[in-house]
Write the structure tokens for this entry.
Amino acid sequence: MANMYNDTVLKHFANPQNVGEMENPDAVGDYGSPVCGDMMKIYLKVENEVITDIKFQTFGCGSAIASSSVATEMIKGKTLKEALKVTNDDVVKELGGLPDQKIHCSLLAEQAVKVAIYNYCKENNIYMEELEGFDPDAEFEHDHGCEE
Amino acid sequence: MEKKVYLDYSATTPVKQEVFDAMLPYFMAEFGNPSSIYQIGIENKNAISEAREKVAKLIGAEDKEIFFTSGGTESDNWALCGAVRMLRKEGKNHIITTAIEHHAIHHTCEFLKEYEGCEYTYLPVDEKGRVNPEDLEAAITDKTAIVSIMLANNEIGTIQDIKALSDIAHAKGVLFHTDAVQAIGNVKIDVKAMGIDMLSMSAHKIYGPKGVGAFYLKKGIKLPNFIQGGGQEKGHRAGTENVAGIVGFGKAAELALENIDKHIAEVSSKRDYFEKSLLEKIPEIEVNGDTANRLPGNCNILFHYIEGEALLLFMDMKNIFVSTGSACSSSSGAASHVLRACGIPEELALSTIRFTVGDLTTREDLDYAIGEIVQIVEKLRAISPFNKNNKWQV
């Protein structure tokens, strides 16, 4: 079937992993860009600074949902520090690529993970140098090719 | 064969068998150049004349008022560029159009502003996509060269009261153009009764081929020639004619006119069945547009809490082909400019899908689509962070 997305993206989109709400999460992170019309919510269970469980909910296009799914797979079982190192480029690579105009959608997952970890660290008084200067309420500041 | 359900007839339509059959001789046997004065040239010229007559009939025009073009976009360009170029010497460089026009109009306005010093005004519409005639009246100045208001909208299907609007333009001595690309074959058109000076149309929306359209120009209006070259189309639009395409358009126009009552009745009945079924089976969806006065095949639906492209992609995986005015790859204006102009907030405008049914849509197609859409919506809503108790807050 001819499609703008590759099979890996379509697989994650059609059968996203780790979907849903979590009961009694240790941290929640919301990230959304009304500009691009997508929004992601991440729930974490954390033990000894390791992400033991993760769930997400996403409002967005196919690449936003696929990126959410693959990002949660990538950071499950990782330490908070390791999880913060996962960038949107890693997410795109894991998906085997996204169409150019959709690359920015993968930032949604990167940012939502960051917000959740930021919230967790704040709650539990944990210092992470990776979060230095991070503003969870900041808009996308990147140029994500959002042009007509 | 795998089931495929096409619900995007406003994007384009398949060529009907009769149309294809009419076109076929003009590729090989009747390949002559219509400008040549030997037999196979003259035969081609006659074929074009017949097609012109059929296209003219569809809108109540005279043959000599029809000029073949490459499609609706070219005709729209011709109307706006022609009017301002003709009237510039009288100090008229202002175009009035609406916020819900096709890009063929909007981008031409922007082009004429940037390169030819024109000005333009986009009239607002109400929540159903209707232009208020009073707004038009107030917008006309002594610099206004042309008013261009689409007959029926491509996304929400809203049909304008063209006569009321053209009367206002004419009362102030301003030319009136309408983009009727979506309307022909779906709405009965009489250019004389409706007071239309120029009209754009396209063959591929009425089961004709792509790459051919026509421009109606009321006799007596002396627009400058649009494409310079040979004497084709009386020199107004030069270039060797797309004979097979024109013949196909003629046949499609003939069929559209013959069947217009049946087409409108059947297509709107299919649309109503589809729409009613979705409204019954899926909670929290809304119909956009003017349900009392819209194109027969149009059904534009807002699915709360899910993004349109995700919905479209899922349907594509189930072989259901639809359209969305939005795409998250396009930012400020990510959402459809038509829905935004109707006052629908950005985040809701992103959650809409346009379904358009047509002559070849069957009840079986619709039942398959309805069943799949119910499941897809359920699945995507389960992924969404939004619901009745937790709405998007921008």
Remarks:
- The domain at 17-258 of chain B is CATH 3.40.640.10 (Aspartate Aminotransferase; domain 2).
- The interface with chain A takes residues 305-307, 309-310, 313-314, 316-317, 326-335, 346-347, 350, 382-386, 392, 394 of chain B (CB under 8 Å).
- The CA atoms of residues 50 and 363 of chain B lie 36 Å apart.
